[in-house]
Automatic annotation (TrEMBL):
GO molecular function: hydrolase activity
Protein name: Alpha/beta hydrolase fold-3 domain-containing protein
Organism lineage string: Eukaryota, Fungi, Dikarya, Basidiomycota, Agaricomycotina
Keyword Calcium: no
InterPro entries in alphabetical order: AB_hydrolase_fold, GDXG_lipolytic_enzyme, Say1-like
Record's keyword annotation contains Transferase: no
Record Pfam families: Say1_Mug180
Gene source species: Psilocybe cyanescens
Keywords from the named record: Hydrolase
Length: 354
């Protein structure tokens, strides 16, 4: 363990003790405070290959969750060639309505088990509150460095085509993603508006019921003058902001040309880039945490997007960190994030209004 790692471990421990006596951390339980600090240390001290090894393949995480919960795994292979990927189901694979989930991880990391737990909770809540037959489909898209842009986008298009081909209308599909998964959701919406060369088209006339972006990572490189980078450097679970930049450099380095930049980094979006978004998706929810490094990035993007989509809204959890609702499920916390019931209500309203 090098000196920098030891120093950061000590700083994190000191921060943890300080957190317990601050207003912002009084909003969280001891379980969450300790869990958040441990997650931050884990992300900061490990290399990307190290994180990949420790987390394990997404499909392995899904199967382990299924075994622990006595659930029969349902895995489909969708697409062919560059579009081929695995689709993992929570619930029936022939439901009336579907939430398509695209996980985060900087396009380099597989899915964490806490996200499976979260979406299972949402799925059961939707069935209880909305009385609807809803399943969650998790796309195990390919990661960097094995692939580069636009392969994950190709796989997302293939998944939507697969769902529609199996009788699920666009009005019964809500797509969602956290962090890099939120970026991929945005890529998909932009592809519908401005088709990417060489990527198959979405079935004609497709309009999705909703799109939810949790803590979307839409500026891939740290920018000058963004206050939340420094303001939340000691609070967020993914920090410092340079950590996001490291992941961003890996993504951008693999681009075949600059034509892909406006699809993956909001810094390169030309004026009017999100215009007519209402024609492809009815409703959009964007959430973020007041304590995350990329808070101001999220707010800036959301303000621009919401100007072009009357059905879009932004919610900021004042004391939330990056992907905050997930970590309650990482530590089995019963006192859930204030965003979680709002997210569930948003999905319920989406599936109940036609």
């Amino acid at each position: 363990m090098n000196v920098r790692v030891i120093w950061d471990l000590g700083r994190n421990t000191a921060n943890l003790l300080f957190f317990l006596f601050t207003l912002r951390e009084r909003k969280k339980t001891w379980r969450r405070v300790v869990g958040d600090a441990g997650f931050r240390w884990f992300v900061y001290t490990q290399t990307v290959p190290g994180l990949v090894t420790i987390i394990g393949p997404s499909i392995q995480t899904y199967k382990k969750w299924c075994k622990q919960n006595s659930v029969q795994p349902i895995i489909e292979t969708i697409g062919v060639g560059a579009e081929q990927a695995q689709l993992m189901w929570i619930g029936s694979k022939q439901p009336e309505r579907v939430i398509l989930y695209l996980h985060g991880g900087g396009f380099s990391l597989p899915m964490g088990d806490y996200s499976v737990k979260f979406w299972r909770y949402v799925q059961l809540a939707l069935q209880e509150q909305g009385g609807a037959d809803v399943s969650v489909a998790i796309l195990d898209y390919s990661l960097i460095p094995e692939v580069e842009f636009p392969t994950p986008l190709r796989q997302t298009v293939a998944t939507i085509d697969h769902l529609i081909s199996n009788g699920i209308h666009g009005s019964n599909i809500q797509i969602t993603g956290d962090s890099a998964g939120g970026n991929l959701v945005l890529q998909f919406l932009l592809h519908m508006l401005h088709p990417v060369d060489g990527v198959p088209s979405v079935p004609p006339g497709t309009k999705l019921r909703g799109a939810y972006l949790m803590s979307p990572w839409v500026f891939l490189r740290a920018r000058e003058g963004v206050r939340s980078y420094s303001e939340n450097d000691n609070w967020d679970v993914v920090a410092p902001a340079a950590k996001f930049a490291d992941f961003g450099d890996r993504v951008i380095a693999g681009l075949p040309d600059e034509a892909g930049l406006p699809y993956i980094d909001a810094s390169y979006a030309p004026p009017g880039w999100y215009a007519n978004a209402e024609s492809i998706v009815d409703r959009v929810l964007i959430t973020g945490g007041g304590m995350e490094c990329i808070r101001d990035d999220i707010i800036e993007f959301a303000q621009t997007f919401c100007k072009d989509h009357g059905g879009a809204q932004l919610l900021i959890d004042e004391y939330g960190v990056h992907n905050d609702p997930f970590y309650d499920f990482m530590v089995d916390e019963k006192k859930l994030s204030e965003l979680t019931p709002k997210i569930i209500r948003w999905f319920v309203e989406g599936f109940s209004k036609f």
